[in-house]
């Protein structure tokens, strides 16, 4: 597979990111890669789904039918997960957490549909980690007083003895790195394993790799989505607690 996105042809399958075309902006060459296109495809699917849901829910009935029942179940489950972790702070962030949950999950399982998972690209997971990092500190500044922030950064020593400050700063910087690397490494490992299966066992890789897809794409993808969102909620909720 030279520049393709879809997994076609057993011997040509690889797990690399390929450049599709480039353009120049402010004198710098910028490449559009397979990751960008896969993200765009997932975004278009989610946007189309949201418009369909909006249209269908306008005619919602008190006793939900098939599609309405599925949508309401999804919303209730996501609301329950966020409320279980964030408590009284859940209404403030339930929309954001639900959005990244659905996006990451769709990205992780996109390998089932022949796409290269965007979350197997560190550029994608790092961006998600930086968004969480920014949200953490926005909430920290909004809900905590400067004195409390300084005391936390000097902890466990007294605030007048900031010997622990450099270590705490490093631990804060490590948050987006650890979040992004955990998601990236787990999704990439599944992508590499499936590429090796199809590449090395091409003649006998028929039907039975579906069981591996269930684990690497569905099970592992869902677990990593849950872990990323759970850690995001935990970090943010800690900063929103004033007591």
UniProtKB/TrEMBL annotation:
Organism: Roseburia amylophila
Any one GO CC term of the record: proton-transporting ATP synthase complex
Keywords from the named record: ATP synthesis, Cell membrane, CF(0), Hydrogen ion transport, Ion transport, Membrane, Transmembrane, Transmembrane helix, Transport
Pfam families in UniProt: ATP-synt_A (PF00119)
Main location: membrane
GO terms of molecular function: proton-transporting ATP synthase activity, rotational mechanism
Residue stretches in coiled coil: none
Lineage: Bacteria, Bacillati, Bacillota, Clostridia, Lachnospirales
HAMAP family, per the entry: ATP_synth_a_bact (MF_01393)
Descriptive protein name: ATP synthase subunit a
Bilayer topology annotation: Multi-pass membrane protein
Sequence similarity: Belongs to the ATPase A chain family.
CDD domains: ATP-synt_Fo_a_6
Subcellular location: Cell membrane; Membrane
Membrane spanning stretches: 30-53, 93-116, 122-139, 183-202, 214-236
Biological role stated in the UniProt entry: Key component of the proton channel; it plays a direct role in the translocation of protons across the membrane.
Entry-linked PANTHER family: ATP SYNTHASE SUBUNIT A, CHLOROPLASTIC
GO biological process: proton motive force-driven plasma membrane ATP synthesis
């Amino acid at each position: 597979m030279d520049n393709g996105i879809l997994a076609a042809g057993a011997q040509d399958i690889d797990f690399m990111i390929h450049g599709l075309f480039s353009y120049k902006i402010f004198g710098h060459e910028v490449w559009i890669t397979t990751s960008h296109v896969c993200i765009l495809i997932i975004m278009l699917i989610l946007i189309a789904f949201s418009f369909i849901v909006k249209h269908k829910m306008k005619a919602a009935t008190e006793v939900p039918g098939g599609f309405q029942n599925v949508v309401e179940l999804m919303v209730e489950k996501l609301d329950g997960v966020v409320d279980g972790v964030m408590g009284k702070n859940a209404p403030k962030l339930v929309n954001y957490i639900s959005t990244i949950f659905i996006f990451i999950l769709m990205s992780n399982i996109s390998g089932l549909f022949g796409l290269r998972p965007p979350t197997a690209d560190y550029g994608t997971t790092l961006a998600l980690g930086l968004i969480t990092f920014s949200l953490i500190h926005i909430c920290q500044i909004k809900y905590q007083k400067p004195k409390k922030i300084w005391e936390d950064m000097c902890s466990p020593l007294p605030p007048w003895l900031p010997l622990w400050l450099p270590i705490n700063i490093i631990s804060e910087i490590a948050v987006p790195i650890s979040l992004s690397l955990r998601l990236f490494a787990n999704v990439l490992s599944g992508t590499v394993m499936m590429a090796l299966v199809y590449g090395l066992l091409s003649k006998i890789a028929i039907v039975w790799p579906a069981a591996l897809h269930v684990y690497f794409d569905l099970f592992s993808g869902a677990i990593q989505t849950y872990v990323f969102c759970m850690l995001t909620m935990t970090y943010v909720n800690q900063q929103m607690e004033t007591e």
